[in-house]
Write a structure and sequence with these properties.
Blueprint lengths: L6 E5 L7 H8 L5 E4 L7 H11 L6 E4 L12 E7 L5 H15 L8 E8 L5 H6 L7 H14 L4 E5 L7 H10 L4 E5 L5 H10 L2 E4 L2 H4 L1 H12 L1
Parallel strand pairs: 1-2, 1-8, 2-3, 3-4, 4-5, 5-6, 6-7, 7-8
Helix pairs in contact: 5-6, 6-7, 7-9
Bound molecules: SN-glycerol-1-phosphate (1GP).
Length: 226
């Protein structure tokens, strides 16, 4: 399923979205909706958002950041493993606890691990996971290749959440990958940033602009699909 995705909207269960805006997002022509956030994600707000998105036909996947907020009924479960964290917890620790507790009911065929490389030190995810963000191009590429060639992760995710990233770095990382798909997220806010990011990566993830300028958010789909 993820191999065809070029554009994904990421919705934060902790943020309000009206029915009309959600309707526009789900009918925009995007390839999927990903539900996830770095703070304030609960079982209740995740169930609520899933049931609203489920009224539409597009795939809806959960990016897990909070064990207590794992809800059944998603098409896929994306599992971030933060490669440039200083804490083993965010690389493998939380994952070990989740498997120990829920291993017997985990639908493994729906699980997609993502090798996260967080590059904006100001974003909530970077602070939460104690990510070492000041990476050079070669260090970022080496992390990506570790994910691709050593760990065989299906997705490498370059996360600049809140700022538009260095597209040369993204392109260089992209060229270094053999099998992993490259997701890019961060600061996509109009047709131009969407087009540039889509040229540099396989899949672009559009988040915050949905909540601040819906028309601009919808234009990011047209930029790469239309
Ligand atoms: C966040 O990568 C996504 O996890 C999207 O980032 O909110 O900056 O669009 P933005």
């Amino acid at each position: 399923m993820i191999d065809q995705w070029r554009h994904v909207f990421k919705l934060d269960p902790d943020k309000m979205i009206s029915d009309a805006d959600l309707d526009a997002v789900c009918l925009s022509g995007t390839d999927a909706v990903m539900i996830g956030g770095s703070s304030g994600v609960t079982y209740e707000n995740t169930v609520d958002l899933l049931s609203r998105v489920r009224q539409y036909e597009l795939p809806c996947v959960l990016e897990i950041s909070e064990l207590e907020a794992v809800v059944p009924g998603f098409d896929l479960y994306m599992i971030p493993m933060v490669l440039n964290t200083r804490s083993v917890e965010w690389l493998i620790g939380h994952h070990r606890r989740a498997v120990e507790r829920y291993g017997y009911i985990i639908p493994w065929d729906l699980v997609v691990p993502e090798g996260y490389i967080i590059l904006n030190s100001e974003c909530t995810a970077a602070k939460l996971t104690e990510a070492e963000c000041g990476l050079s191009v070669s260090e970022s590429t080496a992390y990506a290749q570790t994910a691709d060639k050593l760990l065989s992760l299906p997705v490498v995710y370059l996360e600049y959440s809140g700022m538009f990233g260095d597209m040369e770095l993204v392109s260089t990382v992209h060229r270094s990958l053999s099998n992993s798909r490259l997701f890019y997220g961060g600061g996509i806010c109009d047709t131009e940033t969407a087009r540039q990011a889509a040229e540099a990566a396989d899949t672009i993830i559009v988040g915050n602009i949905i909540y601040t300028d819906l028309v601009a958010a919808l234009s990011t789909v047209k930029a790469i699909k239309g």
